[in-house]
Description:
Bound molecules: flavin-adenine dinucleotide, succinic acid
Radius of gyration: 22 Å
Number of strands: 21
CATH superfamily of the largest domain: FAD/NAD(P)-binding domain
Number of helices: 16
Mean pLDDT: 92
Strand order of the largest sheet: 7-3-2-11-20-19
CATH topology of the largest domain: FAD/NAD(P)-binding domain
Helix content: 25-40%
Number of domains: 2
Low-confidence stretches: 1-34, 36-40
Amino acid sequence: MKKWISIMMASFLAFPVLSGCGSTTGAPADSATPKAAETATKDDTADIVVIGAGGAGMSAAVEATNQGAKVIVLEKMPMVGGNTTRATGGLNAAGTKHQEAAGIKDSQQLYFDDTMKGGHDKNNPELVKVLTTKAKDSVVWLEEMGADLSEVGRAGGASVNRIHRPKGGSAVGPNVVTTLKKVIEEKNIDLRLNNSATEIIKGEDGSVAGVKAKDKDGKEYNITSKAVILATGGFSANQDMVIKYRPDLKGFATTNHPGALGEGITMAEKVNVNLVDMGEIQTHPTVVPDNGVMITEGVRGDGAILINKEGKRFINELLTRDVVSKGILSQTDGVAYLFFDDGLREGLAATEEYFNMGLVTEADSVEELADKIGVDKKEMVSTVEAYNKAVMAKEDKDFQRANMPIQLNKGKLYAIQVTPAIHHTMGGVEINTNAEVVGTDGNLIKGLYAAGEITGGVHGGNRLGGNAMADIITFGRIAGESAAKMVKQ
Ligand code: FAD
Ligand code: SIN
């Protein structure tokens, strides 16, 4: 328990953007809107209440407002963004102008197939169809508001380069969160920071009638509305809840923000919402032990390799997260080292955070690096040589890695020690393709919508890197549109 708390604290401190101090990756400090103080303790009315101001909630709020609905957004934390602010690697989409410009041949069918295969075919194919056909529109939607998703990289389990990120390889989350927050302010949407939803209110006919909320002083108030959109994210930071569904994950650290506690799921259960895939909880393979800082999959996607304490590669680094996590856990001490060079660092701005945080060991030669990290020197030298030859030969005879974009021999050489940590809760509230919520009796709950990591079904048994960002924006927009349509009826 003590270890978990210290990891959570370190993780919180490691991401200055969350504490509103700014960040090299972009999002500005957030401050409570004046509205929160003026209106929070009074009962209120709206067409739609959105619970949670992460990527899904803010997308839903913007889209519902575009459709003419009056929206109130409740956010329990003192800043917007949730886990979305932490997103680093990018957002998947097939058939974008950016892929075309880079000569990447992709299709929505290939994206669908990769997603289903990555999820071990446990995904809801209807939801995956929506995700894979509409993600490219989400890219356009975000870019029209000012986001930058112009660079395309490779993520684990993807057959082609498909993960969209800002130019220069900086983190995607701060870019998207800043964009959505700016639009929320421009549209004068009623966003209430430090305000938690505590209960979904249902009317006598069983349809949604609003929410109970608490302001920053703990005072309770009600908001009456015809629709509620649940966008409270996942529960990776709630150790008890994780262990309830996956006892084998006891003691693992998490990459998540401290607010990822799953209250949305608990609220949903109280109004008889059906939950799916709750045991499907993903670990991210490359997280720094003891502080929970995730090293983006983009590092491997751009060319890094994994080396064990014996100085050897042991896996195709771009297999899916479940497979790579298992691979690392079966090495000595359950850890591995990400190995990369200046060539990679120069193309992936997101790595600068890791240098700023002091997480990277650096050296001028493989021998020196091996000594510094305590890895078998002779083996590490021959591993790196063999890998660089494989890059030249365009064939990885040892592990059949298809994507080997660079040799690792330019400038300084780097290593970061990594181990898996809890990253994404793939199960949650059951929705249909309109983001309408399904009850335990199989019927839709009128007025209740959900989007983002609180939902289950999109990712099945294993989420592909880049698919959560695609999911939250795409289904966030759909939830906003569906709810706005319903309240107009
Ligand atoms: P969140 O962004 O977590 O937002 C939910 C919000 O709801 C939070 O702000 C929370 O405080 C609020 N909330 C919760 N309960 C209440 C309540 N009762 N009342 C009011 N507010 C409440 N995915 C990708 O596809 N690509 C990536 O590159 C990527 N990188 C990642 C890196 C890290 C370190 C992490 C942790 C995740 C990453 N993911 C990535 C996953 C992805 O970021 C998340 O799945 C996604 O952002 C979740 O979005 P969301 O809007 O559903 O939830
Ligand atoms: C990462 O950048 O490795 C995280 C990507 C994701 O969770 O999709």
